Amino acid sequence: MTFNVLLVGAGEINFGSVEGPWNHSRRLESKLGKSLRVVGLVDPDQSRAAAALEGKLASEVAPAYVSCRAFSTVSEAAAALSDDLLPQLAVVGAPPFARGSDLSGKDLELQLTSAFPGCALFVEKPVSSGPVDGCWRVAAELDKRRTLVGVGYMLRYSKAVQMMKQIIKENNLVVMGTNARYVMAYEWARKLSWWNKDSSGGPIVEQATHFCDLSRYFGGDVVLPSVSAHIVSHDEAPGALSAKRFDETAIPPEKRLPRLTSATWKYAGGAVGALTHVIALHGATYDTEFEVYADGYRLKLIDPYGSTPVLSVRRPGVAGEEMHTFPDDDPFYSELSTIIDAIREPNSGARSSILSSYEDAVKTYELTWQIRRAGEK
Ligand SMILES: NC(=O)c1ccc[n+]([C@@H]2O[C@H](COP(=O)([O-])OP(=O)(O)OC[C@H]3O[C@@H](n4cnc5c(N)ncnc54)[C@H](O)[C@@H]3O)[C@@H](O)[C@H]2O)c1
User: Fold this and answer.
1) Half-sphere exposure of 303 (CA within 13 A, CB side)
2) Is the pLDDT confidence value at 19 over 80?
3) Atom of ligand 1 nearest to the CA of 22
4) How far apart are CA 196 and CA 254, in angstroms?
5) Which residue's alpha carbon is nearest to atom 31 within ligand 1?
6) Locate the Gfo/Idh/MocA-like oxidoreductase N-terminal domain: which residues (predicted)?
7) CB–CB of 168/175 below 8 Å?
8) Is any ligand 1 atom within 6 A of the Cβ of residue 24?
């Protein structure tokens, strides 16, 4: 049985990058093997789409791409794909400015579900770069259309994160606090658009979003007005960066990124959350840690993005730390595998195994904007 996929976006998230492990097409190929049939690739940058397809057709996975056509828009794809070429899953790896709204040109999800009503969506994070109310309208519409959606907060699917959840469940713990620390190595981050908060959304909305999402995964809903934040801005003495490999003067001063953001908030359940995001390290290795506290327990997840994340557990009655390592985990594979299983077995309860729903991801987006605004105030 073939499984039809429509890829939206011919960029790094769908086709890979030297910068990180993300590469959705590769995970689709390993999950679906011979059943994978990529029916289309939508990207307004047709030369990029052609290059991406050429690469696949020249490789051993060519059979999955032989019937794939490149389209500039979703409506072109809709006109060409019917019957046995209808997609079952659209993997939406376009930039956030094209998504998360009901405004024309920023409404990829709604375009896709109108064109292909039975098609499930796997949408990248953050859900948008526009106003949050637009995202809520999209969420309501997707719910009304009963579209199956998963969002790319892959860390939720990591084995280490699931072990943390398991420990909390087994011991009936009530989370008291979360503490996320994300120290970025900036030397090789040279995309000018990333350093401009107008185009990228800034370090919290674009990058720390994964940690804000993990915080909510453990702490629950955030009381948004409780968010407070301080920043070190680019023009303050501690914010001077000596290893930039691009010309920041090309970005208007008011659009440059804060170097450090320190935020705290209250969760609706009473716990407290904290986040520190820093653009400080040289070289290419980030330093990231995420902690959860509860009576008797401290769960510390170290380097969740790395090839071997570590979970350190302090528990009652045990001296020292209990260490767990997860060398062969691939949460990018698990998030796609989960939605594919849910599509293939719609009545098996697999739907509820999707760990990041659209509506929930909008709440994370909302939190990241609240932190950004609180810091800018
Ligand atoms: N989960 C992760 O760790 C992770 C990693 C990388 C990227 N991402 C996310 O994936 C998304 C894409 O990032 P990227 O690095 O692939 O960007 P990219 O710039 O490399 O590629 C994006 C592609 O989308 C195309 N595009 C623009 N408008 C479009 C539209 N309306 N329809 C279809 N295609 C369109 C662009 O022409 C470009 O080829 C972003 O939201 C990013 O945050 C997530």
Assistant:
1) 13
2) no
3) 5
4) 9
5) 98
6) 3-153
7) yes
8) no
Q: Which of 12, 79, 95, 97 is nearest to 40 (CA)?
A: 79
Torsion angle defined by CA atoms of residues 350, 166, 30 and 214, in that order, rounded to the nearest 10 degrees: 90
Residue 59's identity, in one-letter code, is S
Going from N- to C-terminal start, the domains of the chain cover: 3-147, 155-329+363-376
CA of 310 relative to ligand 1 center, distance in Å: 29
The runs of H, that is alpha helices, within the chain are 12-15, 24-32, 46-57, 74-80, 108-115, 132-144, 159-170, 197-200, 209-219, 331-344, 358-376
Ligand 1 centroid to residue 13 C-alpha, Å: 6
Residue 17's pLDDT band (cuts 50, 70, 90): confident
Q: How far is Cα 251 from Cα 212, in angstroms, rounded to an integer?
A: 27
Q: What's the CATH number for 155-329+363-376?
A: 3.30.360.10
Is 6 close to ligand 1, i.e. is its CB under 6 Å away?
Answer: no
Structure tokens at 7: 């890829």
The residue to mutate among 13, 17, 97, 112, having the most atoms of ligand 1 within 8 angstroms of its beta carbon, is 13
76 lines ligand 1 (CB under 6 A): no
Structure tokens belonging to residue 180: 């996320």
Q: Which residue has the tokens 């057709």?
A: 57
* Structure tokens that stand for 20 in this block: 């990180």
The pLDDT value recorded for residue 20 is 82
Specify the ligand 1 atom closest to the Cα of 13: 16
Q: What is the fold, at CATH topology level, of the domain defined by 3-147? A: Rossmann fold (3.40.50)
The atom of ligand 1 lying closest to the CA of 11 is 21
Mean pLDDT of 10-36: 94
pLDDT interval class at 38 (50, 70, 90): very high
User: Could you give the CA distance from residue 334 to residue 31 in angstroms, rounded to a whole number?
Assistant: 9
Three-class secondary structure of residue 375 per DSSP: helix
- Beta carbon of 98 within 6 Å of any ligand 1 atom: yes
Axis-axis angle for helices 132-144, 108-115 (nearest 10): 20
Each residue of 292-312: pLDDT tens digit?
Answer: 999 999 999 999 998 899 999
Tokens 């064109």, located at residue: 115
